[in-house]
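seq:
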Amino acid sequence: MKIIKIPIICGPTTVGKTKTAIELAKIIKGQIISCDRFTFYSGVKSIRDIKQLEESIKCHFYGILGLNERTWSAEKYVSEVESLIPKIIRKGYIPIIEGFSGKYLDALIACNAKKNRDFFYVPICIVYPENTNLGLILKERLSKGIKEDLLDETKDLMEKNPNCFPIKCGAIYKHIVKYLEKDISIEEAITRSVNEALTLVIPLELGTFDRFPEMICIKEETKNPKILAKKIQEIILEKNNSKIKWRDLSKAQKELLRNTIIQRELNTKENFAKLEFKMREALPGGNVLDKTYLESEIMKLKKTYFL
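struct:
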């Protein structure tokens, strides 16, 4: 019996994971499974967007938790996924896992070591093209959300549960809340959100990928989801034996991130001191691996700026 390859489409913020998963589902007759804790919660915009696909593409684990519920543990997530995948396959569809939360990704890939499996996971990382202006992309994405319904969405989440996971842990929501409470301007909320993404969220995402140096990587200069989906299809069908692995691109991706931070004029000692404090403050009692990586990134940034 042929072992089925289950793609896990991962990658750092804004690379186009969801759009690529949608295009892949169209061409391989797939069903999408979320691997992003934020999308588990109802009331988040990305949930409403993907729910519109339900008639043509079945999507799983989007908006399944109420705002008062706790997020799933890695063990719970893997149990649900491992139970769901055979059901999807029996119906004649290919499961596609989209997005990533570090602990979930770790736990899924660990399953590949189990014996007598009918399927195994293939993590495929979409990486930033060399010409990516991260700061600009993040700002434009956030500004677009504000022009649409991000403010109303945040108000709605706050009214339902101000202590819910998206509000407390979302890099964007918590700064929008500060704006809604009239503590900061909307411009400052955007700046803080972008800076946090650049200095905390994305570095931690890249640190997660460091645990999988052999992970296959793909990129496309225009970030066209149809082209990216086609590349993933070729990898699954073994028509493209890509030799590009995360170990080959890790340094360049982190360099791109550091250059973006420097370009945003965070390279003064005074600004960096504030940045370092925020980075350390952001993970009270957090995961040991996250803290270790955070210390490593702080040291790298110091060397980039001041040595």
